[in-house]
Each structure stands twice: as C-alpha cells, then as structure tokens.
C-alpha cells in the first residue's frame, strides 16, 4: 500500500482539480500550474512565527536592570537588608523589597513573583514596551482594565498600574480613534448687552418643503430684548440673506450695531461683507462646529420648532401661512430671562391680543397731552431696561454656575500638541470613522484671555491655521512625533495600445510574482486562415466585367477609390477556420495568452473596406477589398443579384426614388 501512495501538497491538488474543471468547460488538452517557490514560503513562515526570548537573555536583563539587580542579589543570598539600608535605594527598588515574601528565584536564576493565584515574571524595563504593545496594540486596543488584567496574569514590575494607565490613556496612537469617556467642556463665557439691537443673531433653519417651495426660515433675534423676526425662503443663498436683512429687517427696526452668525456660505461672502461695511455694521462669527457660540438664535430655533409641531397635518403642509402668527405670539409672551415680553421692551407698551377685544380688556388712556405720555413712556422704559438687564445678568450667572460645575478642560498654552475632533462628513453611517483627526496640531495662540478659543496649525507638513474652540481639542503631548510624509512625484501614465504577443513567443515563468497562490491556465487559439471556402470547396467568382484601363474614371472618384496602405491591410482581422478535432496541433505554434485579472476593454471588429465605383455610366457597383497570400489586394464585387447581360444591381444601396426603375428593368429582362 505504501508503494501506491504518495504525499502531495494542498497546492498541487488544488491545481489539478482546477485544471480538470477548466478542461471540461473549454475542452483544453493541457494545462500549466504555477507553484510558489520554497524561498518565499520560508519567508512567510519566518514573519508569522514568534521567536521566544532565551532564558539566559532574561537573566542578563534582570541583572542589568538597576531596580531589579539589588533585590535579585539579596534574594540569591537569602538576606534582606536592614531598614537603614533600604532608605538609600530608589523608590522602584523599595517597591520590590516590599514584595520580599512573594519573590522567588528559580533554578535558572530568573526572579518571579508568586501569589496564590498566579506566577508573575519580574519584567525588566527594556521589555515593558514590548509587553504593552503585545497585550494592548495586538489585542485590539482594549481599555485600561482589560489590558491591566492581561498583564497582571503574566508580569510584575514596580508601579505597573500607573505605567499601563499612562500608555493606554495618553501614549498609544489608538487615542485618535476612540471617543473619550467624558467630553471636554471649557468654562462658559457670557455675552452682555445693554440696549436693543446692540447685537443681532441670525441663522437659517431647514424644514420640510411646504406649498410654494419654501423650505428655509431665516431667523433674526435681538440679544437684549429677545425680539424675533422670521422669513420663509426657498433657498439659503447669500443674496437672499442680504436682501431680507438689509432691505427688510434693517429698514423696519434700524441697522443693528453688530450681526452675529455662523460660518455658513450664506453669511461669509463678499456681498454680505460689503453691505456690512457700507452700513457701518460690525460683524462676528462663531467658531467651526460650535453652535453654542450662537446660543440665542439656536434656542429660538428650538422654540419655533416646538410651536410648529403643534399644527395639524393640513397646517404643517402649509406652515408658511402660520409662521408670522406663531412668532407674534412668542414676542407677546413674557420671557423668563428678562421678565418682560420682547414686544414690550421694544415698543414700550403691551400688545393687543384678540382675547382683549373679546372681553373688552383694552387699556384706558389717562393722558390728555402727548408730552405727558412721552415722559411716562420714557420713565417706564428706563425702569424696564434696568430690570431686564438685572434679570438677564442674574440668569446668565446662574447658567454659568451650573455649566461650570461640569467643566473638564485645561488651559492650553502656545506649543502644546492637540488633536482636533473629526467633524467633517464623508458619507455613509460613519461608525468606523476616527473620532479625532489623524494629524496632530500645535497651539499657536489664544485669541482672548477670557474666551476658550485657540489658533492651531498642523505639526508636520503644510496646512493652514485654524481657529477652534477648546471643546473640540484634546491635549496629546505624550503621543509620538509624526514623521513628515515623503513627497513622491506623480507621473501621468497615458493609456497606450495593448500589444499582443507575437506568434511563437516564449512566456517567462518568473516574470510574474505569485503572491496569492493563484493558478494560470493559458488558452489555446486556433491557427488563422486567410480565406474561407464555401461548402463545395471552391471559391465564388461571379461572372462580372471588371474595370479596365480604358474606362475613364473622374479624378474625384479615383481619389475615393484609392487603395489602402499595407499597414492598414495587415491590421484587418480575417475570418478564421477552426481546425478539425482529429487534427494534431503543434504546441510550438500555439499562441499562449495568460489570463489577465484586469478589466479588458472591448475590441473593435474590423471589416474589409467597401468601395463603390462605376463599371459603366448609370448604376454603381460595390466591391470588397480582400487580401490574399501575396499581400496584393483584389477587387471582388458583391452583387445582390446577377443577370446575364446586366451589371450587378444593388437596390439596397440605391436611393429610394430609384428602386421602381430598377425593378421595372428586371421585369423587362
């Protein structure tokens, strides 16, 4: 039985099975299998295998470690040094001496820490980074507790927990991918205003499209009075925003002292900037991806959405018609921050509501002179402004105390290394997207001593400076420094013609690298023939009169009938004839084309050129140029019908208005 058996590799068996399958599908007579060289297999096994560290090397590493050497020497002697001697050692050595009863030296002079549940190797400092990489990086970058548990089961060294915590939470590059357990929160900075339209906040709110194509709302809110105005729009372009603010809002309520907005393109454009400059209006903007910087209008957006949601389904489909009524109701309602309604702080009187007319609750005027009303109105407004400012300041301080109680951030200084939160949308769900950007940035400066806004720029490579809020920055001073990327010159590779291998050309087996253990089966092409015979085995030669030298052809027609050059004729694909099954083929003359895994473009099917000429005046004749063995073209007429005594007729090539005359000519014959 042993004589009839042989051990084969799995690659050889797979190649044989594939050759049998392909032979059945394409009826091939032979196949070729390409195997991997033994040298490459040895390299792969060397990469995948792990070489254990010799015991003698561990012994030398412990003896050369300054913290372990003193303990190891005293443990071999079996004598613990007195207390006054222990005071002279380093803190790491003292930590090991505190584990004196649990430390033991094996027969190979390697020291271990043995407890009731585990046996730990006292790890020298030179191998600690390797252990951290193997048990954290190569184990899926798990958290601190899981990584520390894996290390404690195998190793021990002084202050091991603090070293592992520092590496996992501050020094490992996985910080760029993970979201921190607690978000960064910088201290809150309040904005203070003392009069109406000192600061106006604007923003666009996107809703479902209603009748008329309206799907955006331009929201304008005064910071002091909380007075709001909204405009339904069909787009959020810069021209639309500038037209509504400067041609409607400003002309009704006056030009504000400053306009605050985000960094959207509808506000950050040349038109908007020029209008602010001409009108004498100052401008300010929020930092990128920090909507809390425009909190007044964002809070108004939330209130407006809550009011629009109370509409029924029919009214929601045409929410534009109800928008102004809802905003008017908001302006007439008392604000908890100021203690007054926005309408009253702006106009100095309470608004008239339909319910007042219904129950006759209209205010009675006791003024007989206009001057008395003006003085009373002035006194009431001064008192209202003072109370509103005091109430707003009290509410702002209360909100700041609540927000700052959960502050988790540090003050950054110029030169600090930070990571920037990855907030750029790139399509898809983004569940595998890194939480922080890959490139590390450096702090350039802080824009103000009382605001947590910093200017940062990339640490390595080109890049522009960016002004960002502290909440989307994370310090990373312990991450390794990045190496600048190598600039590779990009060459534009043109799309050239595909060159077919010549007949009889030998294929180089070592020209392609077989990295994926793939098998290539060449395809066999039959020999090309120059002419195809009919069923009778003779060539068809119609009885036609060929053009002679005596026939005069016009110069224009002669140029059209010029023969093509030899290069063009050699490129013509001629019809081929399949060889019989019983015919023996020589593999030396077979063209072998390896299967290319890339996508092949469709090839053009070339046909012999067709020329039309006039044998006699009247009806033209169409000829096909067919190459022969000697390379000289011949003119073969291809008529649709031939009649004795008539020239070849091609009705389908004639204009439709000549078809009746041609048919009548055939009938007469």
Automatic annotation (TrEMBL):
Gene Ontology molecular function: nucleic acid binding
Species for this entry: Paramormyrops kingsleyae
Origin: domain of life: Eukaryota
Short name of one Pfam family: Integrase_H2C2
Region (Disordered): 479-515, 530-587
BP terms from Gene Ontology: DNA integration
Protein's UniProt name: Gypsy retrotransposon integrase-like protein 1
Domain Integrase catalytic positions: 192-350
């Amino acid at each position: 039985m042993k004589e009839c058996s042989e051990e084969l590799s799995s690659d050889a068996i797979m190649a044989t099975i594939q050759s049998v399958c392909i032979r059945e599908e394409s009826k091939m007579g032979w196949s070729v299998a390409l195997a991997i060289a033994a040298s490459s297999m040895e390299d792969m096994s060397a990469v995948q295998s792990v070489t254990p560290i010799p015991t003698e090397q561990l012994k030398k590493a412990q003896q050369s470690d300054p913290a372990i050497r003193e303990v190891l020497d005293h443990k071999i002697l079996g004598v613990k040094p007195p207390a006054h001697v222990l005071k002279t050692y380093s803190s790491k050595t003292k930590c090991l001496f505190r584990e004196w009863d649990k430390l033991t030296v094996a027969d190979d002079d390697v020291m271990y820490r043995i407890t009731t549940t585990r046996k730990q190797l006292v790890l020298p400092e030179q191998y600690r980074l390797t252990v951290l990489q193997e048990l954290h990086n190569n184990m899926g970058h798990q958290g601190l507790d899981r990584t520390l548990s894996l290390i404690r089961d195998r190793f021990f060294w002084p202050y091991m927990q603090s070293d592992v915590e520092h590496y996992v939470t501050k020094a490992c590059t996985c910080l760029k991918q993970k979201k921190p357990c607690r978000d960064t929160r910088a201290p809150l900075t309040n904005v203070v205003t003392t009069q109406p339209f000192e600061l106006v906040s604007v923003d666009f709110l996107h809703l479902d499209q209603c009748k008329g194509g309206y799907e955006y709302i331009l929201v304008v809110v005064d910071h002091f009075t909380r007075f709001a105005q909204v405009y339904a729009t069909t787009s959020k372009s810069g021209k639309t925003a500038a037209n509504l603010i400067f041609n409607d809002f400003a002309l009704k309520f006056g030009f504000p002292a400053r306009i605050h907005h985000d960094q959207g393109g509808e506000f950050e454009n040349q038109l908007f900037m020029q209008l602010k400059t001409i009108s004498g209006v100052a401008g300010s903007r929020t930092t990128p991806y920090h909507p809390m910087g425009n909190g007044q209008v964002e809070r108004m957006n939330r209130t407006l959405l809550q009011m629009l949601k109370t509409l029924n389904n029919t009214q929601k489909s045409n929410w534009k018609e109800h928008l102004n009524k809802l905003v008017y109701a908001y302006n007439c309602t008392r604000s908890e921050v100021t203690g007054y309604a926005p309408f009253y702080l702006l106009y100095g009187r309470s608004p008239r509501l339909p319910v007042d007319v219904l129950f006759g609750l209209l205010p009675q005027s006791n003024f007989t002179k206009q001057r008395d009303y003006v003085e009373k109105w002035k006194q009431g407004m001064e008192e209202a402004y003072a109370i509103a400012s005091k109430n707003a300041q009290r509410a702002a301080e209360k909100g700041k105390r609540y927000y700052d109680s959960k502050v988790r951030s540090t003050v950054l200084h110029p030169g600090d290394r930070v990571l920037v939160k990855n907030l750029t949308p790139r399509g898809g769900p983004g569940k595998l997207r890194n939480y922080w950007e890959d490139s590390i940035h450096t702090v350039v400066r802080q824009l103000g001593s009382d605001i947590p806004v910093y200017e940062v720029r990339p640490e390595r490579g080109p890049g522009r400076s960016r002004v960002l809020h502290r909440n989307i920055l994370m310090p990373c001073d312990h991450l390794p420094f990045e190496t600048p990327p190598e600039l590779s010159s990009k060459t534009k590779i043109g799309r050239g013609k595909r060159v077919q291998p010549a007949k009889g050309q030998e294929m180089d087996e070592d020209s392609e690298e077989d990295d994926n253990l793939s098998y290539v089966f060449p395809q066999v092409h039959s020999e090309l023939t120059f002419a195809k015979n009919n069923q009778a085995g003779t060539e068809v030669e119609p009885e036609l009169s060929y053009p002679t030298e005596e026939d005069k052809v016009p110069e224009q027609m002669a140029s059209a009938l010029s023969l093509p050059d030899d290069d063009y004729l050699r490129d013509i694909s001629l019809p081929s004839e399949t060889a019989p099954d019983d015919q023996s083929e020589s593999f030396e003359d077979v063209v072998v084309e390896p299967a290319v895994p890339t996508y092949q473009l469709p090839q053009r099917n070339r046909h012999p050129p067709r020329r039309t000429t006039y044998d006699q005046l009247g009806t033209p004749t169409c000829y096909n140029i067919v190459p022969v063995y000697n390379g000289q073209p011949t003119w073969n007429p291809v008529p649709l019908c031939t009649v004795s005594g008539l020239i070849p007729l091609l009705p389908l090539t004639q204009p439709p208005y000549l078809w009746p005359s041609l048919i009548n000519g055939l009938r007469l014959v």
